[in-house]
Amino acid sequence: MTGLPPQYRERTTPAGRLPAFPWDSLAGAKARAAAHPDGMIDLSIGTPVDGVFESARAGLAAASAVPGYPQTAGTPELRAAIAGAMERRHGVVGLSAERGVLPVVGTKEAIAWLPFLLGVGEGHTVVIPELSYPTYEVGARMAGARVVRADSLTQLGPSRPTLMYVNSPGNPSGRVLGVDHLRKVVSWARERGVIVVSDECYLGLDWELEAPSILDPRVCDGDFTGLLAVHSLSKAANLASYRAGWLCGDESLVQDLLALRRHAGLMVPGPIQSAMVASLDDDHSVDVQRGRYGRRRAVLRAAVEGAGFRVDDSDGGLYLWATRDGAAADGHATSDQPTTADSAETCRDLVDWFADRGILVAPGEFYGPKGVRHVRIGLTASDEAIEVAAGRLRSS
């Protein structure tokens, strides 16, 4: 806004409510890691590196010559494929393919706009996990709502928020919320008329504990009232570049969102819808990709722990949530400095430690104040890169 004349600067824009883009602050650590004589290995983000499966590519090609505008609601074939995959892969029964599902242009876009499209605004409260995907907070702030971080219902007391996010397996920590936990969330929210949005983009990547959907009948008893699940093909099927996701659950909420998205022109391109159908029908490719990440996780976790780090949570998802106890008294320890039991390194100290070994990781503070002692280490690198990173850690 600084380039506009003064009379324009009096406006309050959503951009003015947002924090600085966090990834810009990694420039120094990135340069440090890139200076490693054998090059940098980037484990800071969750971008897939494996190729798009042939099934999705064939689906894309099959619709590449269709000239008309796509349907915001999605084709009947896509809606049926979403409902079918939710039942086969996640045990969700009774989901209406006609009224209970809605494709979106990637789930980041959907999450960013959800509070506004659901009527959340000034005077409303949005609850997000203490460690969470930054876009939850961004979307709430864009809508003008107040944000509260909480992981337990007791932290919220008698409050009555408008919207609550849950995320399992969680980003960044990989924390998995079980059936009993989610049942309590659903019951608490329904007593207060709170909409629950469950970010389930990592749902198929549960390693140590089973991660149920908020729409699982064991959680909600088959009643989707007030519940929305957010899903993506970016992680499980390597379709991040396709921007392929969907919302599903409460039919009244889905239909309200559909009406608004139609007016706004928020529609998934036709060829992408076709690719989604093919990918959703291809359970084998999901199993293949899960196997790749599982192998990489085993190699990297062993190396991280062998280098003296503790991996917390990380029962699901695409990341290791790591820390280590002790640091120099000034809080800027190196691997050669003594440690003390009553001090701890900051996440930025740990980022620098990894950068000195040519590995870029994400500081935990990106995801909330509770992350100031942890780093997030991604599994989204090739087998070769993971092996190289593990070798550097083993030699530390």
How much is the radius of gyration in Å? 22 Å
* DSSP, total strands: 15
Relative strand content: 5-15%
Spatial separation of the terminal alpha carbons? 47 Å
Query: Spatial order of the strands in the main sheet?
Result: 2-8-7-6-5-3-4
List its traits.
alpha/beta; 4-stranded antiparallel β-sheet; 12 helices; 15% strand; 396 residues
3D architecture notes:
- It is a single chain.
- It contains twelve helices and 15 strands.
- By secondary structure, it is an alpha/beta fold.
- A seven-stranded mixed beta sheet has the order 2-8-7-6-5-3-4, sandwiched between helices. Strands 9-10-15-14 form a four-stranded antiparallel beta sheet, with helices on one face. Strands 1-13 form a two-stranded parallel sheet.
- Helix 2 packs antiparallel against helix 9 and helix 10 (283-306) runs parallel beside helix 12.
- The model is unreliable at 327-342 (pLDDT under 50).
Compact overview of the structure:
The protein is an alpha/beta fold and 396 residues long. Helices cover 35% and strands 15% of the residues.
Give the SSE map.
Blueprint: H1 27-34, E1 41-42, H2 54-62, H3 76-90, E2 101-104, H4 107-117, E3 125-128, H5 134-142, E4 146-149, E5 163-167, H6 179-192, E6 195-199, H7 217-220, E7 227-232, E8 245-249, H8 251-264, H9 270-280, H10 283-306, E9 310-312, E10 319-323, E11 325-327, E12 340-344, H11 347-355, E13 359-360, E14 362-363, E15 375-378, H12 383-394
Parallel strand pairs: 1-13, 3-4, 3-5, 5-6, 6-7
Antiparallel strand pairs: 2-8, 7-8, 9-10, 10-15, 11-12, 14-15
